[in-house]
């Protein structure tokens, strides 16, 4: 099995004032919370956004596993729509002691390079900071963190830094090289 070196960068914000919002893109771009846990929709987003950048860890999840994950307090999915079409998403997950992780963030390939990503990341990060307001029993956010890696889009790390995230850890590990799965079995990414 062939392996590749993958660099993973972990970044954080420790105060809401760390967020440096991007400009709102022109046109009819809206960000809406997907409030009903929907394994079908979440798997669609995951596979559509990550299919060309080797997101594979959740592809084998069953319907029940998706539902279990999505139905937990403090897990939120925020979706960017461009003229009514899903363009990308950000998934938030409340953790212990006021920490919120941006677990997944990205755009469908056809929507990249149109200034939607900076706006979606800004919006999603702001929602991470006010997450406890929507979830009784979840502690107020004191830290928002995420990780990105060298397999993600070429502008991902720069986008996080431009939004005010600071690097706190870097790791390089060998991983098995996997084929880019595309958004569904047998599809070829754009």
TrEMBL record:
GO terms for molecular function: acyltransferase activity, transferring groups other than amino-acyl groups. Residues 39-190 form the N-acetyltransferase domain. One of its GO terms (cellular component) is ribosome. The keyword Transit peptide does not apply. Pfam families: Acetyltransf_1 (PF00583). Gene3D superfamilies: 3.40.630.30. Keywords: Ribonucleoprotein, Ribosomal protein. This is Ribosomal protein S18 acetylase RimI-like enzyme. It comes from Streptomyces griseomycini.
